Amino acid sequence: MNANEDRKAFLVGAGIGALSAAVILIRDAGFAGPNIRIIEELPVAGGALDRSGNVYSGYVSRGGRMLTEETYVCLWNVLDGIPSLDDPGTSVKAQAWSFNREWRSDAKARLIDRDRRILDASDLGFNVQDRLEVMRLLVTPERSLHARRIEDCFSSHFFETNFWAMWRTTFAFQNWHSAVELRRYMLRFLQEFPRIHTLAGVRRTPLNQYDAIVRPVERWLTERGVIFQRGTKVVDVDFVEQGSHRRVEALHAVCEGRETIYRLDPDDLALITIGSMTADARYGDDDHAPELVRDKRDGAWTLWEAMARKAPGLGRPNAFCGNVDSSKWESFTLTSRSPTLIQRIEALTGNAPGTGGLMTFKDSSWLMSIVVPHPPHFSDQPEGVYTIWGYGLFVDKKGDYIDKTMAQASGRELLSELIHHLKFEDILDEVQKSTTVIPAMMPYITSEFERRDAGDRPPVIPSGSTNFALLGQYVEIPEDVVFTVEYSVRGAMHAVYGLLQMDNEIPPIYHGIADPSVALASLRTLIQ
Question: pTM for this one?
Fold first, then answer.
């Protein structure tokens, strides 16, 4: 008999970290599906991997993930055993890799200036000092960087380069973010240096990540009896201290206004997602700007705060959620019922939908970027309907063409700003009549990049824990990079294998610098 067959596991949050942990508990640890309960505050699973809307009201995806083959090894490990929705004989991984063989990224218009000229993005724009500063950052130990900002490590010229315009918009860095996180990104994605101007290393899913990843994983879990408790907010955790050891004995939750307590036996597991980059996200529409929520109405942050007050070693959430103005930005999704705008963008860039990368308007006061996905991008998207996703990093600056900040702009005003950057004013009226734009304001979207001290992020398995682990983007996994799906999945592996003292090998973290050919190509790009 499997030693874990009768054990129970309670997972707080239904993001990709918790979903992956549930898969691993069944696949590798022998847990019975009906003994796994996933408790989620929202009515849907997926966390930041979301989609909503329809062709009539407009589709919405708060963000899009650019994956790679080399670095997303834990994600591919999990998805290799999950059947795709439309072909049970093909795994989600195999489907994604097949899609990318057909639709390769080869962006021809990564950077566009104020005059709509496509810049030569292969010219990274480095001078000698920039090169030396990049190399100095790469060889500086994390402990020496401490809580330094990115802007503390470079001269002003670096921030004007094509490289920084592409790197920061690809990964959503602000100049005041943590230099430690930038260093980790450069080391993890060193292989992207020679191809950052084309994004040739990027891999995407055939549909948005909710439809392509979350739904197949959720179906796989449901077929095995996993219980999804939606619309339920976990608000507190009870710990029991036993000498130097600590375990969770109860989870306090609220569902439809009624209090619920989930009690754990000593052998039961609690895997708790802490924090959320998409907490308190709010949407606008064609006529209204989205609300910026500052008072933590969702439960992800308040739960972590409650836990950290009760027990030492569980991190300091305020380091990440304490300054909304330094972590917020806004995205938007266009739904167009006419091919006109898409055809004009294709004619300008030379990229068919799905073959280009992030297109950044380098001189935009909002630092606006857009990407045109391969249609359909949503599972119920009809033929002849197209979508565009975009975002801006500087949401409190006034537009170049509208007299409002991005945060104040309605969907229709965002569309007008975009059309003017593209110099497509001749089709503005036609496009406005056939297009819906849904903006999404996210107060904490880059909070995981905030400067931090040792201990601000707790380990996946806190010291002394006997039955609980922490999941998500705010735990500390040395050398890996936050703001990636990979980070959440890797954390899930550490949680399950560590708590259960399993010998299963976690795929090693890929470092391009350890690959001589990659390191040489990247060094050549840096010094040219």
Answer: 0.97
